[in-house]
Design goal:
The structure is a homotetramer of 234-residue chains. Chain A is mainly alpha-helical. The first copy, chain A, has one domain. Chain A has ten helices and no strands. In chain A, helix 4 runs antiparallel to helix 5. The radius of gyration of chain A is 21 Å and the shape is elongated. Chains in contact: A-B, A-C, A-D, B-C, C-D.
């Protein structure tokens, strides 16, 4: 009973987290909805120039969208290996979600400042939140994988190790972006964007052009498959 | 293991996409919430005329609601054939979702301009975003179906072809709408609306008047079944 | 294959609809967030009286919350009987969701007018939207059950009939509420609230104190059950 | 038929509730988006001091995030034992969700008042809502477990009792926090935060260091299993 319990709980934590990720990423559009040009009726020339001047808002939007989207991918990547929950994991996950929820705020904050290379606070706060996000994610994974604490039995050491390796430098990278915000703010957003793409990559290496294995042993953790087994006459 | 992994990932990408679609479509109401008449107390005559003057907001709302709703339908239609993920597909999907997320902004933008047939920028931006959406959707499907890259084994060439045929002219149609925004903005929204309805149609052709097979072996409405069939030796 | 296809699509339509219902019902809080007293710092006396003057906003909030919540219940009640989709059903469902999405707007609109018994437009628009919602829901159910078009085979005529009977007078009731908004606005909201509760009731009659039947025949339509069957040694 | 019906309905009530919890918790960020400093371009010194002055908003945000997050955890904890629905349970659940939906409002309200130890109304309203939440949750659980009304057959008396014990003092604790708001508002928020953490704890005791059973018959992590067990003749 407890095992299903846990399985159900894991699914729920993922579903709840999905909801928060999806809402936070969609709320990013509010930064445009609150732009001055909305609900006005300017002539074509004025509107065009107003729209062009939204480029910092757009850059911040794209960067944050990529950052949240990729964090969502990686959140799922590690949760596909986590099969048990404990209280600390749930609290670490809530902490991560709390940071994600704040992204629309820092994104709204940073826009107007990208045109002033000499103003750093907004960009520092913006990149600082991503640094915290990377640290929370780091903590989440290391807590779960420590002495194989909450991982399923299907996951091999090598696969767990590859995840560990990939995320090892995450906090460091975001620390560099954080530092870069002191030097040239717009550049730090660009690097931030590249980091997001970089963190999307390993996901592909793992999934690209898989073939469907035939032997039943590989078919443990999916609902479809214990069905398949049951349908294969023995 | 990888297969379930993928199956689970596909389900997650769909669930996350569903969330973004549902939130974006619901945020469209914000354009009304930010209308001037809200939180005031006008007398009946004033309020009535204020409400009547909201017609452009309503037209933009209905058009965007239909566009997002139908894009959601088609997103699911193709994902019901996509059984494997790779990094590029995930990034293309995030790109599509990013465009969808921007719709509430362009919808808020376009309203006030529909009463000025001589102002085109807002409507061009509005229809331009749908053109981008059609292109991203086009890319998503063609990437997935190219050399049957990520499609399941159950999907027959003919069915894949019919989808391809349906969407072949999508970008072209939205390009025409885009062009029309230069000529007569309100009309372009009308055509946009018709396009949405058109793209909803083939869905019905596929599903209308299905009969439920009588033999119990198909265990009525469970998604696992086409998998089971695969596994039952014939 | 089509059957599963449809089953999957039904599940998706329900999941997407759930999302829209959940977001629309939660956005109702925006009416409070946009109240004047927020982000101010009044002394205790001022704040208290400001809060007391929010009673119309609260009444509108509670009424709308009940209306959407119960519409969600009934939406699920009928979808638990709908096992096939066609294009018209999907469009009717999108129409219903579009109306639901507008509720936060009419709710924001109606608040300030409840203190003026001689101002009717806002309340008429508010109740008018619910009339449209009732009509769309009516159409959705009647389209699905007409000549048993899209219903599963498990549903007995009597059960389908009981649903039909329950909803027969829905549009009429909301028409009466609509009429009542001309006479005494606050009362119409009260009746609206009673209607929501009334429409929640039959749900209970159906579900209260069910016992778990042991014979396998009753176990068709649930994913758990074809599993159960497979687990029963043959 | 009814059993699956109920199972499906329980799942739907949980999914809908998850949606509302996830949206309400994410809308908390709106309090920052509406802060004065957003969409301005202040110099670094001004922005920094503006950000520092947001501490009450941040404290309210963290407290509410923890409160909603933990309420979500406990909502799931009890729903993992509830296997049947009736109308009253659904209405009690809607009542709980309505209270949760109001949290972003009281959170927006309380921020500015934390710097005035002599202003209590906002904090009283804030903590009062949590008192109502605790009472609604209390009612929900006691209604469900009364004479084992809606609980599954798998749950043992002791486990149900342990939940009852944990929540026995919930309303009392929130009553104390409520009282504390009269004495020193900021402290009451702190205690509120501690309560949230306290209510997260028992969850862990239940789940910490579970072992996965080795025998394949339990088909690892599928929620359907306790049902299967029921159906396997013993």
């Amino acid at each position: 009973m407890e095992v299903q319990q846990n399985a159900k709980e894991t699914g729920r934590v993922e579903a709840f987290s999905d909801g928060v990720f999806a809402i936070a990423i969609t709320l990013l559009v509010l930064n445009f909805l609150e732009a001055d040009l909305v609900h006005k009726s300017l002539d074509d020339g004025e509107l065009l120039s107003e729209l062009i001047h939204l480029w910092p808002t757009l850059l911040a939007f794209v960067t944050s969208f990529a950052a949240i989207g990729v964090m969502w991918l990686n959140h799922h990547r590690i949760f596909s290996h986590i099969t048990r929950l404990d209280n600390n994991l749930i609290l670490l996950n809530l902490l991560l979600l709390m940071i994600v929820t704040l992204v629309p705020f820092t994104t709204a904050l940073v826009g107007p400042y990208l045109i002033y290379p000499d103003r750093h606070v907004a960009v520092i706060v913006y990149n600082g939140l991503y640094l915290l996000m990377a640290l929370a994610f780091h903590a989440l994974w290391h807590y779960a994988r420590h002495r194989h604490r909450l991982l399923g039995e299907m996951i091999d050491q090598q696969s767990a190790q590859s995840i560990t390796d990939q995320y090892r430098f995450g906090p460091l990278f975001y620390l560099l972006v954080f530092a870069l915000s002191w030097i040239y703010p717009p550049a730090s957003l660009g690097v931030n964007l590249l980091l997001a793409v970089f963190y999307a990559l390993p996901f592909s290496r793992k999934h690209k052009s898989e073939k469907i294995p035939q032997h039943p042993d590989t078919t443990q953790i999916s609902p479809e498959n214990d069905q398949q087994e049951k349908n294969v006459p023995r």
